[in-house]
Amino acid sequence: MLKLLFASPEGVVMEHPQFVATLRSGEDVLPAVQGAISLPPHAKLIQLPGRRPIGIDPQTGRMELVRKVLIRGKRVSVSAVGALLPPGFTRTFLPGAVYDDGPLLPQWAYAAAAWTKEGPVTWALRTDRRTHWNPSRYSTADLPGKIDAHLQRFPGNPVLAQLQKCALMYRCFTSQNIFYVRDEGAIPASVACNARCVGCISEQPKEGPPASHQRIEDGPSAEAMAEVGAYHLAHASGRAMVSFGQGCEGEPLTRHRAIAQAIRLIRKATSRGSININSNGSLPNALDALLYEGLDAVRVSLNSAVKDLYECYYQPIGYGWEDVEQSLARARRRRTYIALNLLVFPGVTDRLGEAEALVDLVRRHRIDQVQTRSLAIDPMQYLEAVRGRGAAGPAIGVDQLIRRLKQAAPWLVVGNFARGLNERFRYKMAVEQA
Q1: E runs forming strands in 209-305
Q2: Which residues make up the CATH 3.20.20.70 domain(s) of the chain?
Q3: Which of 30, 54, 56, 196 shows the smallest number of beta carbons within 10 Å?
Q4: Which residues, at least 6 apart from 220, have a Cβ–Cβ distance to it below 8 Å?
Q5: DSSP letters of 304-324?
């Protein structure tokens, strides 16, 4: 039996003595279905303050809102419980809960969870089995020493000052990679942004939840960015890559001139590795300029391939969905590796019409990769923001969405992590030979 989980006022997670768990898919609360997996290593169960769990009474089959539970002879108010997943997993259902009181939840990606006789379970897919993003490889005891060594190597570099904060305070993996000198490393570049995303993790209005990252204070010079980037590409082990555009900054295309100069300086120093940008794809001409200088990969973030749902969430300033499409088209003409950073929200992203629009976008621009990213936001906040927007249709399930993408585009890589240059080449050759 998939038992309902709840949290006491002290945050202790418990199983309900009777009720069965429920799940949320968009606006709908559903009985728990198959597809639950054991809570993965490094995942955690978390209390959802101000959210009340919904359970099913097995005797009547009716859904019940659970406000209080008898604990040690006392009836106490309880909260809903969700799961936070490690990298490499994509949630398929949200916690079966409703808003009752309290502030907006912090910006995490909450997945449905329940209890079985074998222990806790959650509703998620293992969407990338690569191990180089395993949390056990990060925040190690030697990280502070590696940070100090890098700061001494490049004294006064403002990029490293920001990355130090992100590595230690927020435990950002791409920031830490700069100091571990391996795989994909972050290069924050921009303060300004031309979007006002509802779930922005680095800047929120007063009425919003606390931003989960502190934005970089000033745009660094091309020389400062190149100093960090060139060293990383020249010395990094694994999938050597640097990426402009991080969670702790605005939109990097707004500083395309400085980034273009940084790319020139990096490539003057080393031809090794990949140079990527994480972007909203809002400025096609700016992207074109970076592609000309040697940018070889672009990861465009979106929550939908449908104009009104996309613009409702991103709230673009001075650009629209058409500009995003134009950026994808220009990157394809230059044979750039294109990934979509798909912000997945069960019950919205996997609606039939949304799935069809996404498949059409992938085929039209021959997208190389879709990186499924569980959208980190209070579920109720997102549903209220996008209600009535986007393509209609029943929710087909996140697993079916992924299956449709793979069937419609045999060349497509679906996973959570960026692919290095060698991986891109090997996969392309395998598809062409098939």
Answers
A1: 237-244, 274-279, 297-302
A2: 146-433
A3: 196
A4: 157, 158, 159, 162, 188, 189, 258
A5: -SSHHHHHHHH-BSS--HHHH
Cα angle 213-214-220, degrees, rounded to a multiple of 5? 120
Segment holding 267, helix H or strand E: helix 256-269
The tokens 């990338």 sit on which residue?
128
CB distance 235 to 270 below 8 Å? no
CA distance 354 to 361: 11
**Who contacts 130 (Cβ-Cβ below 8 Å, separation ≥6)?**
88, 415, 417
**Rounded distance between C-alpha atoms, residue 381 and residue 371, angstroms:** 23
Reported as type and span, the H/E element at residue 125 is strand 119-126
Residue entry with tokens 């942004």 = 193
- Strands, DSSP E only, in 329-391? 337-344, 369-374
* Cα gap 328→272, rounded to integer Å: 25
Under the phi-then-psi rule, with left for phi > 0, alpha for psi from -120 to 50, and beta for the rest, what region is 183? left
Q: Which helix (H) or strand (E) holds 413?
A: strand 413-415
Class of CATH domain 146-433: alpha beta
- What length is written for the chain? 434
Both tokens of 325, joined, read 């499409």
Strand 369-374 and strand 74-77: the pairing is: unpaired
Identify the CA nearest to 348 among candidates 200, 247, 198: 198
Instruction: Judge whether 288 and 253 are in contact, CB under 8 Å.
Output: no
Q: What are the per-10-residue average pLDDT scores of the chain (434 residues)?
A: 95 95 97 96 96 96 94 91 98 95 90 97 97 96 97 96 93 96 96 90 70 75 98 97 87 96 98 97 98 97 98 97 98 96 98 98 97 96 96 97 97 94 70 52
Strand partners, 328: none
Q: Which two tokens stand for residue 302?
A: 């979106």
Alpha carbons 33 and 123: distance in angstroms, whole number: 9
Q: Which helix (H) or strand (E) holds 174?
A: helix 173-180
Residue 98 vs residues 14, 85, 191, 203, 388: alpha-carbon distances, Å: 18, 21, 36, 26, 19
CB 366 within 8 Å of CB 408: no
pTM of the predicted model as reported, rounded to 2 decimal places: 0.94
